[in-house]
Specification:
Blueprint: H1 2-20, E1 26-27, H2 31-41, E2 45-50, H3 55-62, H4 68-77, E3 79-84, H5 89-94, E4 102-106, E5 112-117, H6 122-131, H7 139-147, H8 153-162, H9 172-181, H10 185-188, H11 191-199, H12 203-211, H13 222-242, H14 246-259, H15 263-278, H16 281-292, H17 299-312, H18 318-338, H19 342-354, H20 358-375, H21 380-394
Parallel strand pairs: 1-3, 2-3
Antiparallel strand pairs: 2-4, 4-5
Length: 395
């Protein structure tokens, strides 16, 4: 009897250990082998397309792919295959994959059912795996209905939502516009449609949002509405900058004057992102420095400016690089006040090193090391920077 109890406990411990180490099980052979296994087992296929340096890929691998509920569903349902898109560019071209991570769902015969991408929490990841088999939500089923000239409001609504992934020629803006055209003015003010409009950024949804901002107040907070308005300005101004379209920038300023209460903030964001699009790093950094002195500048803009100046300001030559760095360093105290973490301190140290301010750079790198310990993060980059600073001081 004692022996039987011991064996039972060992079995239980084995089950617990397997649960604790559960992970999504990928086929480690070729794509053709995965297709053949799917045909033999009559199981659909899940494809995880990744790149080694992809941040959100690592998050999926370290969290969602380790979740017991997600792994139980995917391991029990699919033949799973992972592919490094940077190494297998032919696979990327074949399936129109231009972002990481991308997820493809195919039936047992290798026919595409559904696709999506980005970081997903385990419940959403499982829900998406189930949605791949539902003709009401499965992307390629909706695509076939649309291409057969079905244009009912319900089909347009569902298809536009299924198009929420990057591709070479994504028709989502067109489908969104087609759906909105089927709705009356009264229907557009429904909660469902207001949430739909708020979700997307297309010429039609942006125009409607700006002209009817009060209608969104019951459903979205002031912070959410501010964030959407900022993103609209950022995207439009960046596109105009890439085209060096100064006239378009003036039109955007007129739109800001008509539709925004805080015109100083909105115009600053427009200028910053227009100059970013033009890759005019000195004026870009100086514009961000002015923006940082306004009330409540957003962390995203400040952090992006410092990062871009660090990586790209050298494009304009050594003298202008230093001018851009000086302006970016003036932004850093404001950013550190809002977001004092390992990444920001390390960025500050790197900019100081580029400015050849070795002593402050070393102090900032040491502060980054201390912050890494508090955040329980790897401090490898900060240590490498300290070694480079010390090596430079010895020359």
């Amino acid at each position: 009897m004692k022996r039987m109890i011991t064996l039972a406990l060992l079995c239980l411990l084995g089950l617990v250990a397997r649960a604790q180490t559960a992970t999504l099980a990928f086929e480690l052979t070729s794509w053709n082998a995965a297709l053949e296994k799917a045909r033999q087992t009559h199981r659909p296929i899940f494809v995880y397309a990744y790149a080694p340096g992809c941040h959100f890929c690592k998050e999926m691998e370290n969290s969602t792919f380790q979740d017991p509920t997600a792994t139980a569903y995917y391991n029990g349902t699919f033949v799973a295959f992972k592919v490094d898109i940077e190494a297998d560019t032919a696979f990327a071209r074949r399936y129109d994959i231009i972002s990481y991570p991308t997820y493809l769902y195919l039936d047992a015969a290798g026919n595409l059912l559904y696709r999506s991408g980005g970081y997903k929490k385990a419940p959403d990841f499982v829900a998406e795996g189930r949605a791949a088999f539902d003709p009401q939500t499965a992307f390629y089923s909706l695509q076939q209905q649309y291409q057969s000239c079905s244009r009912t409001p319900d089909l347009l609504y569902r298809y536009s939502q299924a198009l929420n992934f990057p591709s070479q020629q994504n028709p989502q803006p067109q489908v969104v516009a087609e759906y909105l055209a089927t709705q009356s003015a009264e229907q557009l003010r429904s909660e469902q449609n207001l949430r739909y409009i708020f979700k997307y950024s297309t010429p039609q949804t942006d125009q409607y949002f700006l002209a009817h901002q009060a209608d969104f107040t019951p459903w979205f907070s002031a912070e959410e509405r501010q964030y959407k308005a900022d993103r609209m300005i950022i995207n439009q101004a960046s596109d105009l900058g890439e085209k060096s379209n100064a006239q378009g920038l003036q039109q955007l300023r007129q739109l800001i004057k008509t539709n925004f209460a805080d015109t100083a903030r909105a115009n600053s964001l427009a200028t910053i992102n227009f100059l970013e699009g033009r890759r005019d790093w000195v004026r870009y950094a100086r514009s961000t420095r002015r923006y940082s002195q306004l009330p409540a500048p957003d962390t995203y803009t400040l952090s992006k400016t410092a990062t871009y100046v660090y990586h790209f300001a050298k494009e304009q030559g050594a003298a202008q690089q230093q001018e851009a760095i000086v302006a970016a360093l003036d932004v850093m105290p404001v950013l550190l006040k809002q977001q004092r973490n390992y990444e920001t301190l390390l960025l500050y140290a790197k900019l100081l090193q580029q400015a050849q301010r070795q002593a402050p750079a070393k102090a900032a790198a040491q502060a980054a090391l201390q912050q890494a310990k508090l955040q329980n993060e790897s401090d490898e980059d900060a240590r490498e920077l300290l070694q480079a600073i010390d090596a430079g001081a010895k020359k």
